[in-house]
Amino acid sequence: MEIAEASSTQKKIIDAAIKVFSEKGFEGATTSEIAQEAGVAEGTIFRHFDTKKGILQGILISAVTSFQRPQIMVSLARMIEKGEDHSCVSMVKEQLDVIEQQLPLLKLLFYEAQFHTEVQEIILEKIARPILDLLSQSIGKRKNMREFRCFDSNLMAITLISSLWGYVIWKQIASEEETIDEEEALIQVLHIWLKGVQANLHDC
Amino acid sequence: MEIAEASSTQKKIIDAAIKVFSEKGFEGATTSEIAQEAGVAEGTIFRHFDTKKGILQGILISAVTSFQRPQIMVSLARMIEKGEDHSCVSMVKEQLDVIEQQLPLLKLLFYEAQFHTEVQEIILEKIARPILDLLSQSIGKRKNMREFRCFDSNLMAITLISSLWGYVIWKQIASEEETIDEEEALIQVLHIWLKGVQANLHDC
Amino acid sequence: MEIAEASSTQKKIIDAAIKVFSEKGFEGATTSEIAQEAGVAEGTIFRHFDTKKGILQGILISAVTSFQRPQIMVSLARMIEKGEDHSCVSMVKEQLDVIEQQLPLLKLLFYEAQFHTEVQEIILEKIARPILDLLSQSIGKRKNMREFRCFDSNLMAITLISSLWGYVIWKQIASEEETIDEEEALIQVLHIWLKGVQANLHDC
Amino acid sequence: MEIAEASSTQKKIIDAAIKVFSEKGFEGATTSEIAQEAGVAEGTIFRHFDTKKGILQGILISAVTSFQRPQIMVSLARMIEKGEDHSCVSMVKEQLDVIEQQLPLLKLLFYEAQFHTEVQEIILEKIARPILDLLSQSIGKRKNMREFRCFDSNLMAITLISSLWGYVIWKQIASEEETIDEEEALIQVLHIWLKGVQANLHDC
DNA sequence: TATGAATGAGCTTTCATTCAT
DNA sequence: TATGAATGAAAGCTCATTCAT
């Protein structure tokens, strides 16, 4: 399994880079630190990636695979199509925990996108757009059934995603504060959104 | 007026640093670039700030003044207390534009907060917390009047703020796309939230 | 004398670089070695020259000044115009010693010219061409007086220069061998050339 | 025929190294580039040569074979012994073209000789000295016949070689200029030298 | 106080060389 | 024997910081 082994070095570097970039930011991280974390020589990094920026793109490519159609979004879409569903909420909760673990990576990618056009384009086309489309479609179906208000579907999707995002970020920041039960909090966030987008009888 | 002059130099540096940090990020920016942008010698920077990080804190301090109780939040609080108010919406819209102009700075501060504890603390205590308290209080009043659902006030506030934040970020990213009228979009976002938090008669 | 001092750092670097490049070649030399030789910090080099190659160009520029119309060539031109002149020979000898001291630098510049177009162009236009023109003109005058053969003037000049160059190089390489007296050798080289280019009565 | 194959690999490496060294200089060339040019793995180079410098010596050894008694020098020696001979001139011309094709290699070897004693010694003993001896002997014979001036034989030989060398280099550098016919130029160079060394009746 | 040349530690990157396969 | 991934020392270069003026 030579190929597997070859790519295993690459994987080690990617994993180390995710860790170090997440902790220090892209510019704040050093290749020597990444090498050490990966347990390889610094020169080895540059046999696998042309430049330091190349590592970032490598991370992105590997991230695209796992974020392109994240399970949480599929669950959310299902929840939207079927109306609120408590079994669904617990699934969403579970998957939100996964997202939280990757929060530093996500923040890194979204932030660095400002400075690296290639990164921005890939994130937009391969991550943000597919997710948004997925949710927009589900939202559109409910709109057609007159169950959701006839607002802009994208906007409704964004409202949902950013509410969840805001909740996750807040949990991180205010970690030591007295907060309500996590599952309860998630339910409240989803309830607010669901009720917010529900159509009145005489709407539209 | 030497003091005035000194502080004017300081202001020039702060302004230049905001520009350069916003464009390149904190680590990506160089003090020499900031000096050039400010029209001062590189050494001069270090008469006003001990270290590069000191400039970031300087920015933060000057930002705290303008963000501590930003007009937009006051308007939002008023809107919450009085119920939806169209005159209020147009004010919110106006102030959201101001926010948008400072978006790079805000993103910078929020992002760098991860890596610099002092920055994080100041943002939390001087910006995030006051804003959240302001909104939470207004929300609390409506809750007491049984007009808002008896959800966690902080959570409701976060849902509102992050919906608006998400909307602003999306506008930036998807700038060239066909989007609905900005004012209409803002109204939709606020409507979703307002309806989402409104109490049913038999709630709680 | 601040200006003098500022440029003195630059001069120190140039002088050190001439020494190190001459000893190790351009690629074989390191900037750290140059810095050490110059007695400055390595970083200082890059305040004065953008890149390592920039140092080479800096050397060239300073060399152009001293080689553009080297005294030896003026003496040679005079010798050519007046016919052989023993006082002239001793002057040429003297100046040839100067050239010899700068031999490593000259070899460096001529050799590196192969790899750096900018260097090549400057050497050609600012050093080689003026020298060749100077000699060609003097040769031309004698040709017009029917005292020199009607060969190509440039070619005659090249024959002279390269004979001298060959002699100097040989002296270096075969330094420890028994060689004839230097002044005598020089006279012989010049005699060969002078007799070689002299016109017969019935020439042309 | 493993030995034959091995040596063929070695030859491929030598040929590639000549090309790459000629184009980039010794220090400027990389072993990876040589490997690629040779169509072998980088590691393979080090099965045939201990170090990078070893390749240079390998080149030198293979060059010694072809330069030790180059045909052009034999032709020149014959020309000297017999006096000017037009059939000889055209042969010299032909062989000078061969030299020109190997000019980069020759320049490389002569230049690098400065930095590598072993290279210098081999060039001196195996190339320069034999050539010089060959010409000196022929010159000596004419001197004995009172047909050449009683100058130092080595010096006369050097004058001849460097005139030709200077001519070849000049052709390269000033390639795009209007120059006289190559054969005519060569004849002029040789005429200048021949007439320059010819004895007057009452010489010595 | 403001300057900007100098600093030197530390960065990203290169490359001759090694070695398990 | 040939391979090419891995190595790590050292390269060129950057930049926050200092300090004499």
How would you explain this protein's 3D organization?
4 copies of one chain form a homotetramer. Chain A is an all-alpha fold and 204 residues long. Chain A folds into 2 domains: 2-64, Arc Repressor Mutant, subunit A, CATH 1.10.10.60; 68-197, Tetracycline Repressor, domain 2. Chain A contains 10 helices and no strands. Chain A has helices at 2-24, 31-38, 42-48, 52-67, 71-82, 86-101, 103-112, 117-144, 153-173, 182-197. In chain A, helix 1 (2-24) crosses helix 2 (31-38) and helix 4 (52-67) packs parallel to helix 8. Chain A is elongated. Residues 1-6 of chain A have low confidence and may be disordered. Chains in contact: A-B, C-D. Chain A binds chain B through residues 23-28, 104, 107, 111-112, 114-115, 120, 124, 128, 149, 151-152, 154-156, 158-159, 161-163, 165-167, 169-170, 173-174, 179-180, 185, 188-189, 191-198, and chain B through 24-28, 104, 107, 111-112, 114-115, 120, 124, 128, 149, 151-152, 154-156, 158-159, 161-163, 165-167, 169-170, 173, 179-180, 185, 188-189, 191-198. Chain B binds a DNA duplex (21 and 21 nucleotides) through helix 1, helix 2 and helix 3.
Tally of alpha and pi helices of chain A: 10
Distance between the termini of chain A: 61 Å
Number of domains of chain A: 2
Beta strand % of chain A = under 5%
Order of helices and strands of chain A: HHHHHHHHHH
Helix content of chain A: over 70%
Write down the overall mean pLDDT of chain A: 87
The CATH level-2 architecture of the largest domain in chain A is identified as Orthogonal Bundle
Describe the oligomeric state of these chains in a short phrase. homotetramer
**Major sheet details of chain A:** none
CATH top level of the largest domain in chain A is Mainly Alpha
Gross geometry of chain A: elongated
Structural class of chain A: mainly alpha
Q: Count every beta strand of chain A, where a strand is a DSSP E run of 2 or more residues.
A: 0
Compute the CA-based radius of gyration of chain A.
20 Å
Could you tell me which chain pair has the largest interface and how many residues each side has?
Answer: A-B, 46 and 44 residues
Would you identify the regions of chain A where 5 or more consecutive residues have pLDDT less than 50? 1-6
CATH T-level fold name of the largest domain in chain A: Tetracycline Repressor, domain 2
